[in-house]
Amino acid sequence: MPLIPCEAGEEKMPELPEVEVVRLGLEPVVVGARVNQVRILEPRSLRRHLGPEEDFVDRLCGARLSCVLRRGKFLWFPIEETKEALLVHLGMSGQLRIGESESEFGPLLRVQLFLTTQENKEAVVGFVDQRIFGSMAIDGLVTNSERVNSETRGSDHPIPGTISHIARDPMDEYFDERKLLLELRQRTTGIKRLLLDQRIVSGIGNIYADEALWRAKIHYETPANLISRGKVKELISAVKFVFGRALEQGGTSFDSQYLNVNGKAGYFSRSLEVYGRERKPCSRCGSLIRRDRFMNRSSYICPKCQRRRRTR
DNA sequence: CGTTGGCCCTGATCGC
DNA sequence: TGCGATCAGGGCCAAC
Questions:
Q1: N or C: less crowded end of chain A, CB within 10 Å?
Q2: CA A211 → C1' B12, Å?
């Protein structure tokens, strides 16, 4: 069975497209599977769980998982017997990998789930996470009317309570583009910070934020309310474009159900125009890409295409 | 409430 | 060879 080896250095934070590829890879194995046993190797990986470690294990053991859902960068597995779900966030370095034996996940294995699949086969899911920014939890599912930010449109499918503040992502069929447009245009904060704020729009991380801003030719610090309506629309289209392109590439390298069921193999660096391309030429104008420090992270821009406070 | 700054966390890598 | 500094950044929270 092919397992992707860990190669140091090429690790990147999974954003929406990578998480979706993980979701697709898990789906055939996990849907209808029964959890027989749970092993916690690193209790800090349960930080999001509201309760002790034993409680997490008790609630999950014996559960049948009905499907794999995603919003933004969160994944969850509703449990058939209860109104709860196994909630997972990969953080910066988390991976969910499918295996058949116990020992193939390496020293960064944090949580292990032993499953019996719908086809009555044994499977093991390993949660591997170097930096322990990712986490797992058992969380109650709530419907729209019970949510913190109840939504004005869309389905009333239940969602884990602790992530009910997470906005719909741009690939969601009920994503409300007009609502996002209106919200962005009345905020004075720099546009990149808003793109990264999962309460406003989810799924975007540092890499695809830079990519989308480059496509729309917007400087990352431009106050959102100073960007014209048309330009904000362009930006939202750019987000959808970079997500869509990454998903296509993730899909093409997706030969078997085991391939790409981890947080890194699906990273599609060939398609990146600015991120990680410091001092390399902009593919539009030839200017050298610059790396700035911003919000304790890197921002890559083309200094010519993305001028400060360009609004139209 | 909107905005902003900073903390968490580990292993790879770099400079001296 | 050793060792401290640096870097990666999503989510969340305190402070104003």
A1: C
A2: 26
